[in-house]
Design a protein that fits this description.
163 residues, 9 helices, 5 strands, Shikimate/glucono_kinase, magnesium, amino-acid biosynthesis, cytoplasm, Shikimate kinase
């Protein structure tokens, strides 16, 4: 069964996944490999709906894997009802990484490698609304919730491993 890392952008899913043992699959990386470009470029060329369709395809493929796997999802994976149904089937193995909005915002601002399309196109206030509007969706699916504000990636990885 897969352990799934959920959470908003900047909460540490990709960073923490690097500290977990076993097979770790990052959905954003898999999507970029499939589409042959960055997610930001794809958003610009094809739009968010096309991206969300590919995101759902990848999640469905990953959920069929039989071996134990850690899956780091993108922040918007919970927007699709289809994805939420898939994630509900994974009960007892869904980990929500949370942070305060200010911490997530600072982390995203400081990240020079991952250019997040929604971050680049929204005001801080719109981005904060997005952050809070997704929280209930994440919490509804979570079996373990870990606040990442004052923990190291190694500490968070240890908590997940104990799950």
């Amino acid at each position: 069964m897969a352990k799934i890392l959920l959470g908003f952008m900047g909460t540490g899913k990709t960073t923490v996944a690097k500290h977990l043992e076993g097979r770790v699959l990052d959905m954003d990386t898999l999507i970029e490999e499939k589409i042959g470009m960055s997610i930001a470029e794809y958003f610009e060329e094809q739009g968010e709906e096309a991206f969300r369709n590919i995101e759902s395809e990848i999640l469905e493929e990953l959920m069929k894997l039989k071996e134990d796997t850690i899956i780091s999802t993108g922040g918007g994976v919970v927007l699709s009802e289809k994805n939420r149904k898939l994630l509900r089937r994974n009960r007892h193995h869904n980990v929500l990484l949370t942070s305060s909005f200010d911490v997530a915002y600072r982390r995203i601002q400081a990240d020079d490698t991952a250019k997040r399309p929604l971050f680049l196109t929204k005001s801080k206030e719109e981005f904060e609304d997005l952050f809070y509007s997704r929280m209930a969706l994440y919490q509804d699916l979570a079996d373990l919730i870990i606040n990442t504000d004052h923990r190291t990636p190694e500490e968070i990885a240890r908590l997940i491993t104990c799950m």
